[in-house]
Specification:
Length: 315
């Protein structure tokens, strides 16, 4: 048998060059693929973070603007229509569920989705639900808690990004008759129906992302609204302590007697303050009783008994 003729040396060199080029192209392809995958994940994370932050801001705004019970939050969306209605989302005066979809329509938002295209989920402390009748002020603690890498207690609400479906989770199109199963969207102890949640569980498959609304975060905003209401805002306030001063040229004595003082608060505002116990929570002080405004422009102060907000100056 004849031995095949050996390739010329220049062909050996050409093959080697082609091999090197091929390996380079393969390595570049793998690198670009890895880079592309990383970019996609980064973009998903940014989309998720932005959606969670927008939902949090909307919920705090909802709570702060409530006319009768500042601090209360909407029930979760039970039936999947994006809004909270007495027929669809309540059992009597209670929420049908305290963990469900974020009610984005009721919050005046677009349909917020995380980086995987999933709608956000939401849970709240039951004593903060809308349409409640119990007084709501700084003394009312959040009933939720969180464990994991950033534990927290006294949590009022949590918003969740469910992320990509994991093994065993079955996700179907959202319908408005049957609520989605929380176990198909949330992971670990986030799906068991109690008041304790987790940010990360290294012992299980877990991809939920959470953002919290703590008692401190919520009432920092609520307390500022309450003190500003009592003090009166704007250059020529139409109500509150500063309005009183404009009429009488002095401030009333401390503590405030809301029932008899001419603060020009509307009946609904007066009821909101007294029904929720804010009249006992707000501390009003006069370093020098009945001192003229021009002599001591910063003497009128009001602050919340919890001390979270600190002193708010009337002028």
């Amino acid at each position: 048998m004849r031995t095949p003729p050996a390739l010329p040396k220049h062909q050996h060199g050409a093959l080697l060059i082609l091999l090197v080029i091929a390996l380079g192209i393969l390595a570049a392809t793998v690198f670009v693929g890895m880079l592309s995958s990383s970019d996609i994940q980064n973009q998903r994370d940014k989309t998720t973070a932005a959606a969670l932050a927008e939902a949090k801001a909307a919920l705090i705004g909802y709570a702060a603007s409530d006319l009768n019970r500042p601090g209360e939050l909407p029930c979760p969306d039970y039936n999947g229509d994006g809004q909270v209605t007495v027929v669809g989302d309540y059992n009597g005066s209670n929420c049908k569920t305290y963990i469900g979809r974020l009610p984005w329509k009721s919050l005046g938002l677009k349909e917020l989705q995380d980086g995987y295209g999933e709608l956000l989920w939401y849970t709240l402390s039951s004593n903060f639900q809308a349409n409640g009748s119990a007084p709501l002020n700084s003394n009312v603690a959040g009933q939720l808690s969180v464990t994991g890498i950033s534990p927290a207690s006294n949590v009022v609400a949590i918003i969740f990004s469910p992320g990509q479906a994991l093994a065993g989770q079955s996700r179907t199109q959202l319908v408005t008759t049957t609520p989605p199963n929380v176990q198909d969207y949330l992971d670990g102890s986030n799906k068991d129906g109690d008041n304790q949640f987790e940010i990360q569980d290294p012992s299980t498959i877990f991809n939920d992302k959470l953002i919290l609304i703590t008692h401190h975060e919520l009432f920092t905003v609520i307390e500022r609204r309450i003190t500003n209401t009592i003090i009166g805002t704007g250059p020529t306030p139409s109500s509150g302590l500063r309005h009183y001063f404009q009429i009488h040229t002095f401030y009333p004595p401390s503590p405030l007697d809301y029932a008899s003082l001419d603060l020009n608060l509307s009946p609904s505002t007066q009821n909101m303050i007294s029904d929720n116990g804010w009249d006992t929570q707000v501390t009003y002080s006069l370093p020098r009783p009945m001192i003229a405004k021009l002599a001591f422009p910063d003497y009128c102060t009001a602050s919340i008994a919890s001390g979270q907000l600190g002193i708010t100056v009337c002028h």
